[in-house]
Automatic annotation (TrEMBL):
Molecular functions per Gene Ontology: fatty acid synthase activity
Biased composition (Pro residues): 93-104
Gene3D superfamilies registered for this protein in UniProt: Malonyl-Coenzyme A Acyl Carrier Protein, domain 2
Protein name: Malonyl-CoA:ACP transacylase (MAT) domain-containing protein
Malonyl-CoA:ACP transacylase (MAT) domain location: 1-134
Highest taxon above the source species: Bacteria
Keyword Transferase part of the UniProt annotation: yes
Ranges of biased composition (kind: Polar residues): 116-126
Region named Disordered: 66-140
Key words of the record: Acyltransferase, Multifunctional enzyme, Transferase
InterPro entries: Ac_transferase_dom_sf, Acyl_transferase_dom, Malonyl_transacylase_ACP-bd, PKS_NRPS_Biosynth_Enz
Length: 140
């Protein structure tokens, strides 16, 4: 994965012909885009863009997340996540502070701060959400 200081429309043409090997993994800001996929292809594209004045930074990751390389694991991943029992969070999302004190013995809720609630019936199932997180983005 390589972060490139360039907008999507500058990077997208360099991906043409490499769709099975690389994709845009994230658009962090209008001028900060991350590509992910085959290392050689990503490095070639980054070098081309670097030579035209764009800053690049190779990210220290273990996988080519959000790239076509994740496709092979998606079905098994979805099956596995369907077998997980999901519950509302019981751990606070932020540490206690004067504005957000820890719960007391008489608290109605065991947590402080915002927590994720159970998935509403009209929302994607948790396994579908996890699959979406692992898949390439769909903003093409």
């Amino acid at each position: 994965m390589i972060a490139i200081q360039a907008p999507e429309h500058t990077i997208r043409p360099h991906l043409t012909g490499h769709e099975t090997h690389i994709d845009i993994a994230a658009i962090n800001t209008p001028n900060s885009t991350v590509i992910s996929g085959t290392t050689h292809t990503a490095q070639t594209i980054a070098t081309t863009l670097r030579n035209t004045g764009h800053k690049t930074h190779t990210l220290n990751t273990s996988h080519a997340f959000h790239s076509p390389h994740m496709d092979g694991m998606l079905n098994q991943f979805t099956t596995t996540t369907k077998n997980i029992t999901h519950h509302p969070a019981t751990t606070p999302s932020s540490p206690p502070s004067p504005e957000n004190p820890p719960p007391t013995k008489n608290s109605k809720t065991p947590t402080t701060g915002p927590t994720r609630s159970a998935t509403p019936s009209d929302s994607p199932t948790p396994s579908k959400l996890w699959r979406q997180k692992a898949s390439p983005p769909t903003w093409k």
